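User: Hey, my collaborator sent me this sequence without any context and asked if I could get a structure. I don't really work with proteins. Can you help?
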Amino acid sequence: MALIRFVAMPTEEARAFQRGEPDAYGRPPERSVCTSEGFPCRHCLRHVRMGAPMLTLAYRPFPDLQPYAETGPIFLCADECERASESDVMPDIYRATPDWLLRGYGHDDRIVYGTGAVTPKQHICTRAHELLQRSDIAYLHMRSARNNCYQLRIERV
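Assistant: No problem. I've predicted the 3D structure and written it out in structure-token form, which is a compact way to encode the shape of the chain:
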């Protein structure tokens, strides 16, 4: 069975947004103060602390514009935070939600049809292993099953 790793947003991207550089829509990230729990930072893979500054921005986790390069809202800590370690264990922040959308992407960064499925949290690792054994799949996205928001990338080790 192929080994997997859960991968947070690259630090270089997070730092650019934290400096106010434009998001996927060419706009500066929106700054606010976190007023409730539940805003997951895509870099440290922790919830932004209550009362802490946070960013909301349009994120496109693909190298180039193309029809399958989905863009959507994400949250980040406004202050520099440490990037989550890559691991084969699903980050704790995602364990409270009952299910997630897993979707495979090819080496051309396009959706591999038939791979997207809402997956119960306890089956995420098994499903990721299965999908990443296929040669036509380069990586996976884990997304919100309800809103399709990008959470993280899952890769082969």
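In plain terms: The mean pLDDT is 96. You can pass these tokens on to your collaborator as they are.
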